[in-house]
Design a protein that fits this description.
The chain contains 2 helices and 15 strands. The protein is mainly beta and about 220 residues long. The protein is globular.
């Protein structure tokens, strides 16, 4: 087993086992990509990643598909029955009270969703914050078959009170406008939309925070 030492940086991986590295997310420059190591037919890849909160007191520990939150060395209840998809990314809010995970159910072209995890009364709570965005975004595209939009977390704003989400038309052949995007600022944890942007304004105002998935359109 190989061990890799990674410099402690708030919001980034500070210790990774099995050769994982601290890499920016697919959707967000602020996220840490939760990558598995490359496996083989005989030995599957593994994932052991700790993501340190900005206050250096909380850690989101991802162990393969399991997640655990540790505060001052104590593991909190609330995530025992929760899992993290094999393709996912995580970002703590600046005030260290909450983090989001954006994950796919089927690789790069799978359906992406975003979940928020927050600590309250000594327990971790989890909720999807994309329902209102998905509903609103359906007004802006049509597919030949029923298709749910991809929604990824991009940027915490105003501490942990609001989160920028980007909705994307799935890159599937049944969607003539595949890849079309729109930005939404939502309240946390309700997911209520407080502001939205079309693709041109999203790229102009928030492009610097978007991940590699949107690299080709940032300059357009």
């Amino acid at each position: 087993m190989n061990f890799l030492a990674v410099t402690i940086v708030p919001g980034l991986v500070f210790g990774a086992i099995g050769g994982a590295t601290a890499t920016a997310g697919i959707w967000s420059q602020d996220s840490t990509l939760l990558s598995f190591t490359v496996g083989s037919p005989d030995i599957p890849g593994t994932r052991r990643i700790d993501v340190l909160a900005p206050d250096h007191q909380k850690i989101a520990k991802v162990n393969d598909v399991h997640i655990q939150v540790v505060v001052d060395g104590k593991s909190l209840l609330g995530t025992e029955n929760e899992g993290v998809g094999p393709l996912a990314e995580l970002a703590w809010a600046p005030d260290s009270t909450v983090f989001f995970i954006t994950e796919s159910d089927g690789g790069i072209i799978g359906t992406w969703d975003t979940w928020v995890y927050w600590i309250e009364d000594g327990k971790v709570h989890r909720k999807s914050v994309t329902q209102e965005v998905t509903k609103r975004f359906k007004q802006h595209y049509k597919c030949m078959e029923p298709e749910e939009a991809n929604v990824g977390g991009v940027k915490w704003w105003n501490g942990s009170k609001t989160l920028l989400l980007v909705a994307e038309v799935p890159p599937h052949s049944s969607c003539p406008e595949m890849g079309k995007v729109r930005g939404y600022m939502v309240l946390i944890p309700s997911g209520e939309i407080v502001e939205e942007w079309d693709e041109k304004r999203l790229m102009a105002d928030w492009g610097q925070y978007l991940g590699e998935r949107f690299a080709r359109r940032k300059g357009n």
